[in-house]
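Customer escalation, tier 2.

The customer says the design service returned an amino acid string that "doesn't look like it belongs to this structure." They asked us to rerun it and document both sides in this ticket. The original structure tokens are below, unchanged.
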């Protein structure tokens, strides 16, 4: 690929060396991670608003213009600066949203468009975003259970892993689930939200053996669990809260959405990663921007690549991405993972993308 193409990458506005956006992140320390009543939901919205305002105060107008449409226009400025009439674009994860926006704004300037681990281009609301992600986590847990049933290296081999997880949630709801320790359960309670957090990140990013081992530790009370802390990613908020409309009317609607999402994904309840993003946008004072209209012009055939079990960019969104183009091919790999253009088990996706970029018309 390096012999065939000049490779150009850049830090999107507000990130890295493109003048990093600065916010008062001390405000985040007081924001309820999972609001438990209307008062906490109101406090979350108020503090999110203060956080957004702090970004504007410390960064300036740039903070309100980190949306993907603005960055897509930056891509075209780069194209013009290097003197190319058309470019080939490969985007991974958030980069797929950038590629889609570029195609809407500048269709005639694309020679090829490869989108790896695709975001949903249809501006899903909070419920659909949470449901798609939760169902993916739930399906990935079932995949883990199927492996555990057959493989004796699984710490829960001989047990129904799904039933174990359901029991863990029942114990969490009853207030009897405790953090495991080296000699047995500790005094620290594990509630259902913390258990959902653990499942999202362990099932999606952990190895099968290690995830099963930690589930067994929770179940027996003996062992160790790696808890993933909530992380406030300000750059993501400044982009996604402008690209998507995740606004929820009030606490009652929030609880109703959570209930319906849990019905769709009964063994994990929800995707913690998706819920973090949705809650981070409540009360955000920089309102969502409309999706740009499609500019008329010829588009090349598009390639969309996705894992069947991608917790960050679930397969339904990738399917919608492929359908959003007049001519597109969706290539999937039956794996758990995100960002397939890499070595280590997904080289097939690399070969498919390289072949497409070399000859988009096949």
């Amino acid at each position: 690929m390096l012999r065939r193409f000049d490779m150009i990458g850049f830090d999107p506005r507000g990130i890295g060396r493109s003048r990093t956006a600065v916010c008062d992140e001390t405000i985040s320390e007081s924001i309820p991670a999972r609001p438990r009543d209307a008062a906490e939901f109101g406090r979350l919205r108020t503090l999110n608003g203060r956080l957004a305002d702090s970004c504007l105060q410390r960064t300036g107008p740039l903070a309100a213009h980190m949306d993907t449409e603005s960055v897509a226009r930056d891509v075209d400025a780069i194209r013009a600066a290097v003197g190319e009439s058309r470019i080939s674009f490969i985007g991974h994860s958030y980069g797929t949203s950038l590629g889609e926006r570029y195609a809407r704004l500048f269709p005639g300037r694309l020679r090829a468009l490869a989108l790896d681990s695709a975001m949903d281009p249809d501006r899903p609301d909070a419920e659909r975003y949470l449901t798609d992600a939760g169902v993916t986590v739930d399906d990935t847990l079932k995949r883990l259970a199927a492996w555990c049933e057959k493989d004796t290296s699984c710490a829960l081999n001989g047990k129904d892993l799904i039933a174990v997880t359901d029991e863990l949630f029942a114990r969490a709801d009853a207030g009897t689930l405790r953090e495991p320790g080296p000699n047995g359960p500790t005094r620290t309670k594990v509630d259902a939200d913390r258990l959902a957090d653990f499942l999202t990140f362990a099932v999606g990013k952990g190895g099968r053996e290690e995830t099963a081992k930690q589930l067994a530790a929770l179940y027996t009370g003996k062992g160790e669990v790696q808890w993933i802390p909530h992380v406030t990613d300000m750059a993501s908020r400044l982009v996604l809260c402008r690209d998507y409309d995740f606004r929820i009317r009030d606490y009652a609607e929030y609880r109703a959405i959570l209930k319906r999402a849990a019905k769709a994904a009964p063994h994990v309840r929800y995707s913690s990663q998706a819920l973090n993003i949705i809650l981070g946008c409540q009360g955000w004072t920089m309102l969502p921007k409309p999706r740009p209209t499609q500019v008329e012009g010829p588009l090349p055939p598009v390639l969309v690549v996705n894992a069947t079990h991608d917790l960050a960019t679930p397969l339904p969104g990738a399917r919608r991405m492929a359908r959003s183009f007049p001519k597109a091919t969706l290539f999937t790999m039956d794996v758990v993972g995100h960002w397939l253009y890499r070595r280590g088990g997904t080289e097939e996706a690399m070969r498919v993308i390289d072949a497409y970029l070399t000859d988009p018309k096949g």
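Tier 2 assessment: The sequence is consistent with the input. The beta strands are 87-92, 110-116, 302-309, 328-336. DSSP finds twelve helices and four strands in the chain. Sent an explanation to the customer and offered a walkthrough call.
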